[in-house]
Amino acid sequence: MDAILVALAAQHAEFGGLLESLTDDDWGRPTRCEGWDVYDVVLHMAQTDEFAITAIGGGLEGLGGWAGQVDANAAAYVESQRGAASTELRNRWLAAGRSLRETLAAADPHLRVQWVTNKLSIHTLAATRLSECWIHSNDVAEAVGVDLAPTDRLEHIARLAWRTLPYAFDGAGKEMHGSVAFELEAPSSAHWSFVPDDEPSTLIAGTAIDLCNVAARRVVPSETALVASGPDAADVLALVRTYA
Fold this sequence. Notes:
Shape: globular
CATH superfamily of the largest domain: dinb family like domain
Radius of gyration: 18 Å
CATH topology of the largest domain: Four Helix Bundle (Hemerythrin (Met), subunit A)
Helix content: 40-55%
Largest sheet: 4 strands, mixed
Number of strands: 6
CATH class of the largest domain: Mainly Alpha
Oligomer: single chain
Distance between the termini: 19 Å
Order of helices and strands: HHHHEEHHHEEEHEH
Strand order of the largest sheet: 4-3-5-6
């Protein structure tokens, strides 16, 4: 858990630095999130960090109305809160991120809490917040023409993608034919192996940045150098994800 919190703080710092550099025009630039400009993406991040704090406090128990319509509800929530000045919004996100890190650090990492459509451990929730911040950091960077170099923070995101494959398959109504292993090259050129206890029947190999971008739905597998083999190869690449 400590390592994820360190990574989350570093990702927040990168995103915060990016927001600090934005011009007035940058806030209105369109992003690859359909229908959202940079302002909307930052608002979504502030809202969902606040949402996570509420979840840790047990405030989302009984939530079920988002099932099957997460994107629509997120879009409606953003639309309902547009209007604050960009400086005010940036400060709102900074405060939410700081409070989220403090709340996560004080919580039992094994505690399961309601998050959007299912229950997650605090540990997994922290990884999903890291993943979403990484995804949207790159959405904003791409919109304003900034190149963010990948870092080994991706290890936590790739591990999350690997660990949640059964959930992804279940959500799609598909059965796995066996376990899956990831063999990935880190941005630092280190090698990461995510392997099950038993012999895997499906193997995904390549770079961590390709795997994480596929899991983030930012590129399609055919646009990467990922190599997949085994009975579930195509389904793994189609279903892998790192967000609720």
